[in-house]
Here is the input.
Amino acid sequence: MEVKLLTEHYDKPEFKALVGYKKLGGYDTLKKAFGMKPKEIIEIVKASGLRGRGGAGFPTGMKWSFLPENNEPRYLLCNADEGEPGTFKDRMMMERAPHQLIEGMVISAYAVQSKKSYIYIRGEYTESYRTVEKAIREAYDGGFLGKNILGSGFDHDMDVYSGAGAYICGEETGMISSLEGLKGQPKLKPPFPAVKGYLRKPTIVNNVETLAAVKYIIRDGAQAYRKNGTEKSAGTKLFSVSGNVVRPGNYEIPLGYPLKDLIFNLCGGLKHGRKLKAVIPGGSSAPVLTADEAMRATMDYECLAQMGSMLGSGAVIVIDDSNCMVDLMKVILHFYHHESCGQCTPCREGTGWLDKIVTSIVTGHGRLQDVQLLEKVAKNMMGRTICALSDAAAMPAISFVTKFRDEFEFFVREGRSKVKKEGYNYAQMHH
Amino acid sequence: MPKCTINGKSIEVKPGTTIIQAFKEAGEEIAHYCWHPALSVAGVCRLCMVQIEGQPKLQIACNTVVADNMVITNKSEPVKDAVRWGMDFHLINHPLDCPICDQAGECGLQEQYMRYGQYDPEMAEPKQKKHKVIDLGPTVVLDSERCILCSRCVRFTEEVTKTNELGIFNRGDRSEIGTFHNKPLNNNYSYNTIDICPVGALTSKDFRFRQRVWYLKEARSICTGCSTGCNVNVYFNEEGTWRVKPVQNDKVNGYWMCDKGRDVYKFTNLPVRLTSGKTGSKDNWNLLEAGALAKDVGATIRAAARSGADKIALVITGQYSNEDYDALFQFFSVGLGVQNIYHWINNPEDMNGFDGLLFRGDRNPNTKGLVARLEKYGVKTKWLDLEDKIKAHDLTHIVIAGPENHSVFPDLETKLRLFDQVPNVVWLSAGKSVAVDGLTAVTTQIPMKTFIEKDGTYTNYAGLEQKVKRGTTIVAGALTLEEAVHLMSGEELDMNMRPLPPKYLKTNFLVHKGGPL
Here is the structure.
């Protein structure tokens, strides 16, 4: 069953504007939050078990408590550079409920005592940018942003910033570099953003969904939020389901919900009555699950980690038996090759190498040892770089090869796909 | 003071020391490209991997600070494997054009492949194509395919010169170093980017395609281009000298030297050198062996001094070593009683100039040493006195310890016109000069050795005495000023007999331990 907490009013067009939002109880929680001490809010968020919804799943309250106790200005950054292939939940949240995000952000900013926040929106999301910008103007006019918000004595300014279309700017330090006007490249850690982030000042970076969820945790309390989900994966989460299902789209479900039910009940099963072959459960960086594994999986951090995959950003890509896994891997690896920032050698060279090997295979020039080489190269890219992009390319590569080795070996031996009669024209696709 | 164990060696380091610095202190080898002791940490080559006891993941040594009781190794199999793969990643798109690459023989890729790589390459796909032979500016040429994007050169222009000419453009394996539109790499320290480039991506316009580095020998020396006295290596073979590179010395130049100093080798080579003793005047010169000529002219001067030392003048430039000056003063001031001793300052307006990094307006290596001796021997003359004396025809002989590097003496010709009014001119210099060959006075030219051909001590602007050692001989018959003076005084000189430097000198030992990284 869907549990509509964040998305309760998403089908009401008036929820988008300030007037409608207020009618539906908007900004009431902000008033409530101002009645609490900032430390109290952090404790409630900690108790709620909320984990970062952007992909890494780091406990939000703990992240906030890493801020050093000093008088330096602090920044709150909202990561809306939703670039993980398959993910489209933040976009819907910004376009349907911009004030929900703003309210969540002001509460979070109050909790971490930040006077300035930015929403970094993916470059392609022009509609989201316009909607959020308009909502910020409305919030200023309504007294929910600016000086002395709702008479609380708390000042907060908010701005939107449009990215330029780089996947790497969704990585929190890459995003900070981009926001600073530098080339969007992740920064070496330590120091971590909580200590030295935007403009070398303490900075908290949270995903859109995380910040919006803060509003509901404060509204209902930590225990109410915990009613949904599992012990280690509390609350509800939005999942973007795409691929060969009858009803693709965003679904808000409690964490721990069976993947099988998500695909076959909520999404109406597979198109044209085809058979399920594989599922990528958490965006293109997450290791793929076979149909068997997918039938057993529940959508929470621990179950997917135990299966060797991850919940990631919650992008569920459903793959039926008409798809060639070698083809799919080519598409995924081309993406990471294109998006690697090029700082760290293993990622810069490794993503290109993986892409070239799989291109050789799909164009019929593969060698038998290439299948093993893909695995070896990918393994040696993991855990050796500044950010996780290298791992994000390596993990699907390893899982595709190990779980669908027969398809790769068939392609190398026969020079054609085991599944498809005709492939794409890769000569055109590959520069 | 945190204590740590590095490959089994226990050492104590200063708080805040990174693991890679601790490795260097412990004298343990560690692979790296992007880390440079004088630049910020980039952490991108991912080669300096180490295993720390109790930590599951390998860490990079350059960005990890040593904590107390850390047990660190880079000799374990996981580290070796990571470094081996790191080398492979660096090399898969490298063109491997070592046979035509100037860096071959001193290349970080070659050295570290032999040390940490030695695998069979598995890359079968075509390599990434990038731009080649990119003219970055007046000194540097870039080959992007050879570049490993360590970003050292970019950080150098950001952090050391603060001129920011270089950047990395594009991303992923299409990344290339480049300059901004219409802004060439054109600063006085640009050659340093070539030195710190661990591969053959940046090559020097001055040196490329001229010599194979493994045929060159190197000698430690001091740059004589200005009064800073940067520590350098001079690279030479039997044909002459070919280039100068800085040597680390934290007391003087750190790791760098300026582009102007890179030219000092040029005036040591035969085409610009005075190769033989000469006597005569304009259009009528006899060539003589330098030693014999020095003896002859010495006898003449001694005779002249007996009839009146005030008829003799001595002009000195700041281009010689302290030993040279000592001998000169001993002979002229003490021995002959010459009072007319003058300091030839080649660029009086800029004498105190300084660019904030290394380059100084005083373009002599040893002005300070000369001034100290002028004081010691009580010389308080002014240049204008000399001009007056010459105009009044008070002088019969003038001895000039002239410049080694003519290019930094813009006033050479005007000064020579002045000296030409004295009947007898003795010109001691390493360089040949058309202007000297045009003198009408009775002139004796004695060829001098350059800094790379002699032993000696130079005092830099800060009073630091630095020794140079003979590296090679380019002009066989040339003398040091000291030798010439001994011969002039009538001594028979055993050329191997060198006076030892006095014990009170501050000796500046060169601390660099070698290697291009």
Remarks:
- Chain A is about 45% helix and 15% strand.
- Residues 13-226 of chain A form a domain with the Rossmann fold fold (CATH 3.40.50.11540).
